Amino acid sequence: MRRNKIDIISLGCSKNLVDSEHLMRQLQAAGYSVAHNADRVDGETVVVNTCGFIADAQQESIDTILQLGEAKREGKIRNLFVMGCLAERFRADLIETLPEVDRFYGKFDWKGMLADLGHAYRNELANERCLTTPPHYCYLKISEGCNRFCAFCAIPLITGRHTSVPMEVLLDEVQRLAERGVKEFNVIAQDLSSYGMDLENRMMLPELIDRMADIKGVEWIRLHYAYPTQFPYDILPVMASRDNVCSYLDIALQHISDKVLTNMRRHISRQETLDLLARLRREVPGIHIRTTLMVGFPGEGEEEFQELMDFVREARFERMGAFAYSEENGTWAAEHLSDDTPQEVKQERLQQLMALQESISLDIQEQKVGKTLRVLVDREEDDYYIGRTEWDSPEVDPEVLISKEQPLAIGEFTDVRITEALPFELVAEKDS
Q1: For 162-188, what is the mean pLDDT?
Q2: Number of CB atoms found within 10 A of residue 117's CB
Q3: Between vectors from CA 415 to CA 414 and to CA 417, what angle results, nearest 5°?
Q4: Is 0.85 topped by the overall pTM?
Q5: Are 154 and 53 in contact (CB under 8 A)?
Q6: Are 148 and 229 in contact (CB under 8 A)?
Q7: 99: number of Cβ within 10 Å
Q8: Neighbours of 181 (CB within 10 A)
C-alpha cells in the first residue's frame, strides 16, 4: 500500500471517463499521486467510478467493488470510495448492502470527496483534467443529462435534465488541450442535438463545432450521440465544409418499426428516420454513420424484427452496434409494458442482426482496398502500427493495421494505402 496514492477505476462510458479525469486533476493539485485503471491497485485509497446504465454494467460495477472490498479486508487498501451513475441511482441500497465502502458519491457530488480527504475543491482548476487517453486524442463532454425520456432508458433518472456546458468554457478547454498537443477531439454527450437549448433556447452545436474548428492544432472533431428527433441540420454544412470536422456521426436510431418506435417513445417515425438518413448522406458526401439498434423491445414481434433486418440491409450503416432489451426499474417501459419476449429469442435476433451487419461492414471495408487514406497512428504493437481513419472512433470502430516496413511516429498523421479488408479492420502499408 502506497501512502498518499489514489487509484481511480473508471467503468462505463467515456462521459464517466471525463469525470474521472477532472477528479484526478483536483487530487493531483491536492498533492496525491494518482493512477488510472492501473494493472495493480496499490494506493492507500481506491475510487471506483461506476456505471448504472444497464444490468450488465451494473453487475460489473458491483463485482469490482466486491473485489476491492476483499482487498480492503486483507489490508491492501485503506479507503474504498464509490462514485458515479450506479451510486447516484442506487445509493440507499448500496449503503445497506456494501458496508465495505467507506463513502458513496453520486454523479455530481464527487467534489465532496476532496473535503472528506481534507482538501478544498479548487475552482480555478475546474476546466483542467488529467488525460487518461493517449496524449493525441481526448473526449470533450459538452453536456450532461437528457430531456428525451425514452421508454427504455434510465439515463434521465441518473443524470437529470439536460444541462449544457457554456460554449466559452468548452472553447477555452479545447484551446488548452490543443496547446498540449491534443489533435483529435471526440465530442460526446447523451444528446448532442439539444446542446444549447437550455442556454439560449437554440441549437448551438453547429456554432460550437464551427468555432472549435478554427482553433489552431485541432485536426479532427468527431460527433457522438446525436438524437434523431429535432436534429440540428445546420451542423451538416459545417461537417461538409470544414476539413477538420470528420465525416462521421454517431446517432442512435434504436429501431425502424413505427409500432416499436412509438412504444419506445422516440417521437420519430419510420419515414422521418429514412428522410433524416437520406439528408445526412446527401449533404455530407462520404459520411460514415454509426448507429445503435435494439432488439426484443416490447411490441417487437417477428414482423417488426424482419422490418428492422430489411432496414439495416437497405441503410448499409458503416458502423453499427446492437443490444437486446433489458428491463430497467423506474423506466416508463418497466412500469407500462410487458417484457414478454423470451431471452433466447432476443439473443437469436441479436445474432442475426449482427451477422447481417458483419457482411455489410466487410463489403464497405473492401471498397477501401487500393485507396490512400489519412490515418492517425495510435500505438505500436509487435507486428503492426495501429491507426484510425477519420471514420473510426477510438475503442469502438475498426482500426487500421499498418505494416512496419517504415517507422511511424505515434500520435502523428500519415498516409497509408489499404491492401486488405476484414469486417472490422483494414490492413495497410505506408504510402510511399
Answers
A1: 97
A2: 16
A3: 140
A4: yes
A5: yes
A6: yes
A7: 9
A8: 11
